Amino acid sequence: MTTIRRFCCNDLLRFASVNLDHLTETFNMSFYMTYLARWPDYFHVAEAPGNRIMGYSRLPLFWFYCMMHFDANFVMGKVEGQGESWHGHVTAVTVAPEFRRQQLAKKLMNLLEEISDKIDKAYFVDLYVRASNTPAIKMYEKLGYVVYRRVLRYYSGEEDGLDMRKALSRDVEKKSVIPLKRPVTPDELEYD
């Protein structure tokens, strides 16, 4: 049985295998600790029997990545913005290869969306995905996300990213998900 719980400091030493695919970015330990300290409600991990980490998602209401060897699933992120730009941001959602196709990413994303919607009263949730990552884009579309804009050379100055968004209950008119007509550059982004 899968258990989803809040992330704790010890988990930083247990989740590397989830973060080892070429589409997942990794960060240094202080980055994860900052998010864990500032947005603990947005940091969750999925565990398999025997306390094996299966995956995670990170929103800048949930940010988190794997550094050591461990089967992990998690979500990590944060909330940011002002006015109608107040939103939850998914920094990452990652599931270990052996635990994929079990709806774990969907469960982790739903948890982040619920926190953004019900607790923080955000207007939308957004995330960035590599334009070449077709499986992830399709998954996010199935979860109700739309491509809001293309960010040129977002990933390491080389690959474009797609800013995908999902409107929450506070955005009754769904203004936050009306796509921009032109691509933007990273220096035009409102938030990191």
From TrEMBL:
High-level lineage: Eukaryota, Viridiplantae, Streptophyta, Embryophyta, Tracheophyta
GO molecular function: protein-N-terminal amino-acid acetyltransferase activity
Keywords attached to this entry: Acyltransferase, Transferase
Organism listed in the record: Sesamum radiatum (Black benniseed)
Name listed for the protein in its UniProt record: N-terminal acetyltransferase B complex catalytic subunit NAA20
A Pfam family of this chain: Acetyltransf_1
Domain of life: Eukaryota
GO cellular component: NatB complex
Gene3D superfamilies: 3.40.630.30
Entry's transmembrane regions: none
Chain ranges of the N-acetyltransferase domain: 2-169
